[in-house]
Amino acid sequence: MPLPRKRQISLEDTPYYHCVSRCVRRAFLCGEDAYSGQSYEHRRQWVEDRLLFLSTAFAIDVCAYAIMNNHFHVVLFVNTEKANGLSDKDICLRWHKLHKGTLLTQRFASEGADSLCDAEKLTLASTLAIYRQRLMDISWFMRELNEPIARQANQEDNCTGHFWEGRFKSQALLDEHALAACMAYVDLNPIRANMAKTPETSEHTSIRRRIQDLKRGYEPRTLMPFVGNPRQTLPHGLTFNLIDYINLVEQSGKILHSHKRGAIDINQSPILLRLGIDETLWERLTSEFERHFSVAAGNVTTLDTHRKHRRQRRQSH
Predict the structure, then answer these.
(1) Cβ distance 179 to 75 under 8 Å?
(2) For 98, which DSSP code?
């Protein structure tokens, strides 16, 4: 039996999560149906556009993603510090990107708090507290991603009913080892599926978007940025070097195919040297990540700590 969502996602353990949503009965999300010849390729853009839009509304950063034929992968970072630091006005405006809100929130957004009486301010405060919590909730993020896509697909297919499986799968990424391995695993999905030959041609992936924007001299605003090696004045972002990461994905991609030449060389990959990842283990992680981990991923120490926390939470309920 699957674990309840509240036990799979615990921000006390980690703010990083790998989430996967699959179409019901493995139906086609995108690509081309070999039987009917119908192309659904345009739906991959639907998912990518919606995903990146949500990163501008939620206090949740997108670290990596890959949109496949009947499922998609996304690595998310829940930015609780950002969510708690947003003003009430910011929370209101962000929620209104997704929904109309209430009459009170609409008045507050357009006229400010001075237009409200004391009773209305109390009601508004309660409503905005709910919105603030939702804007850092992965379940709400996935709901806001999947439901509009399902409605569009059903309308296009002239049918009703479920489009996605009832629950998305989530994995806790407990340390930098797990985060780097999972991001590379996600970015390499199209190459493993023989949908692309190189990272720069892997359409609807975060690695392709990062490479394209790197050529223009900046990082994507809708993706969590790479900020380099850990240091005291470190800004918000992934503590890897972008160039090293791109090279890491490229080298890992070569090792996935027996007919391609090349192998991971830890001496030429600073990120592997810094994280101390064994070459054989890294190959398994970036090609079979989901097989090696269930609800959480990490090294022995962080996994043991995570298991202890889960036992304590079960005992307290």
Answers:
(1) yes
(2) T
Measure Cα distances from 80 to 61, 84, 157, 238 in Å. Answer: 11, 6, 39, 16
Report the C-alpha gap between 204 and 48 in whole angstroms. 6
Q: In a 3-state reduction of DSSP, which class is residue 315?
A: helix
- Token duo for residue 61: 């950063």
Kindly state the tokens that stand for 44.
């991959």
Q: Find, among 57, 49, 47, 56, the residue nearest to 19 by Cα.
A: 47
Stated pTM of the model: 0.80
Buried b (16+ CB within 10 A) or exposed e, 129-142: eebbebbbbbbbbb
* pLDDT tens-digit readout, 53-98: 999 999 999 999 999 988 999 999 999 999 999 999 999 999 999 9
As given in the structure block, the two tokens for residue 219 are: 């990082």
CA 89 to centroid of chain Cα atoms: 26
Alpha-carbon gap, residue 225 to 240, rounded angstroms: 9
